[in-house]
Design brief:
Strand content of chain B: 15-25%
Radius of gyration of chain A: 17 Å
Number of helices of chain A: 1
Helix content of chain A: 10-25%
CATH superfamily of the largest domain in chain B: Glutaredoxin
Largest interface: A-B, 29 and 29 residues
Number of helices of chain B: 5
Strand order of the largest sheet of chain B: 1-10-9-4-5-6
Number of strands of chain A: 10
CATH topology of the largest domain in chain B: Glutaredoxin
Largest sheet of chain B: 6 strands, mixed
CATH architecture of the largest domain in chain B: 3-Layer(aba) Sandwich
CATH class of the largest domain in chain B: Alpha Beta
Distance between the termini of chain A: 48 Å
Structural class of chain A: mainly beta
Mean pLDDT of chain B: 90
Helix content of chain B: 25-40%
Mean pLDDT of chain A: 88
Oligomer: heterodimer
Shape of chain B: elongated
Number of strands of chain B: 10
Strand content of chain A: over 45%
Number of domains of chain B: 2
Distance between the termini of chain B: 52 Å
Low-confidence stretches of chain A: none
Structural class of chain B: alpha+beta
Amino acid sequence: MRLRLTMVVAIAAALALPGAEAGEPALSDAWIALPAPGVPVAAGYLVLDNHGVAPMRIVGARATGFAKAEVHESYREGDRIGMRPRPILEVAPGARLAFAPGGLHLMLFDPADPPAVGAVHEVALVLADGRTLTVRATVRDARAAHH
Amino acid sequence: MPSQRTLLLVGIAAIALAVGVLAGRALHQPPQLQAATLLPASRALPELTLRSGDAELRIADLAGRWTVIFLGFTRCPDVCPTTLALVARANRDLADLPAAQRPRLLFISVDPGRDTADQALAYARFYDPSFVGATTDPAALERLAAALSAPIAIGAPGADGGYSVDHPGALFILDPAARFAAVVSPPLDPAALAADLRALIGG
């Protein structure tokens, strides 16, 4: 009886992990950096785990409350900084891809309303195979993050 | 043959000279820096006038305090917000210094086509109320970029009119004479930056 209960709890816990069932890709830790007032772009960040056995190709992005979203990557070459669009982003099977400040990020254009700390936007990554992955991203004030 | 007294006086003079030289060296020793690189010699910047809000700001007006210049633009989604937040963090580490001694962050927009002087100022202040933001015209920006050896490039506009801007990730440090004195290259570490600024200020 206890063993069965333990098994049920273990299976329930495994199913609760993002995307662990059926090897589906999973999005987690999604957040949007609060932009300065009046600035019409914001950066979104998240973690993507490809639990599947095939590579994933991200070909687009969307976010509720913003007119447009694109995948971009900040890079550094010596002392110069640039940003390039990543219209196609491949994620190998079993790989984890982190979108984080200074690297990959979602560029979110033209918010319908001024973004507010705590507000939740649904972010979607569009895959080449037609699937869409979604995750809820919360607006955070990144100014206070560096303590 | 010099007398003993003469030898003694020469000896004392030699010791005094040695002590003086060593003391002088100790006083003028460059500070130990973790993140910033001092230029071999500080460089004067061109006489430029920036616009910050509705005020004019000349490079000469920056004299009296150490200034940290960051070049960016307000539509920069990732690097500029991240950098300014890191500098704000370093700035908070220096809160114990008297206000007049604290370094001043000056954000200069390299995208005057889209950023107004008011927007640049509001943008800088968002990251820290003490930060200053400014713009200037493209010709002045070119002169400033050349003086700082800073690579800036405005990208070609896309179909929707948007364009990207390449700018340095470095921080350019001006001494209290408003001369370009040091560079802090990315990646930025707020604790190291604060320690270096403190060492430069001598506080």
